[in-house]
Write a structure and sequence with these properties.
Elements lengths: L9 E6 L2 E4 L5 H23 L5 H15 L3 H4 L4 H8 L2 H14 L1 H4 L15 E2 L5 H10 L15 H14 L13 E2 L3 H5 L1
Antiparallel strand pairs: 1-2, 3-4
Helix pairs in contact: 4-8, 5-8, 7-8
Length: 194
């Protein structure tokens, strides 16, 4: 019998007439397999029953870190009526706010605030509060049921406050073809913003 005529070792059983060769796995593969089993047992003991942090503890740590990086709601809403009024007297802030208004608000409220789809912003009647900070909140949170999106994710709080101040300067401007008044009479807005 020559080297080419040798039959490879067989397992010793056949299925449907097919015999199975006895081909053991390479030694390095078997060692890696047993090493992963030993590692998984150590990993399980360390994290489930030992000093290792649990998945929930890791999650809570990540949530705390994200909360520390995020601005606090109090910092976003710390704007007062007087601060919005002061912004209305800042020429540079009003120039930037006018650009923001033209880019984001004019399509619904009209280029002069006269109202189109959205309400008229130049009369003394308002739908969502009668204070400058009410307008800051309305811009920030939006009025989704009326079609106004919340701008808090797209504009930073100082820009929203400046936009509210700019809208306050539109009150009493009497543009052509204003939309009919809606809501309640404004009250203290003009005194706070001028």
């Amino acid at each position: 019998m020559t080297a080419g005529d040798e039959k490879p070792p067989m397992v010793g059983h056949a299925v449907d007439g097919i015999e199975e060769f006895d081909n053991p796995l390479p030694g390095w593969w078997v060692w890696i397999f047993w090493a992963t089993i030993v590692f998984s047992l150590g990993y399980w003991a360390y994290y489930e029953h030992g000093p290792g942090p649990s998945v929930i503890a890791d999650y809570e740590t990540d949530v705390r870190a994200a909360a520390e990086r995020a601005p606090t709601p109090a910092a976003e809403t710390a704007m007062s009526d007087e601060a919005v009024g002061a912004l209305a007297r800042d020429g540079a802030a009003m120039t930037k706010a006018r650009e923001t208004y033209e880019a984001k608000c004019a399509m619904c409220h009209g280029p002069q605030g006269q109202g189109l789809i959205g309400p008229n912003l130049t009369d003394e009647y308002w739908l969502h509060g009668n204070r400058p900070t009410d307008l800051v909140r309305t811009i920030t949170d939006g009025v989704v049921d009326k079609g106004m999106i919340p701008w808090k994710g797209q504009l930073p709080p100082p820009e929203i406050a400046a936009l509210a101040a700019y809208i306050g300067t539109l009150v009493g401007s009497n543009p052509p073809n204003p939309k009919a008044p809606q809501g309640d009479k404004l009250g203290a807005w003009r005194a706070a913003s001028r």
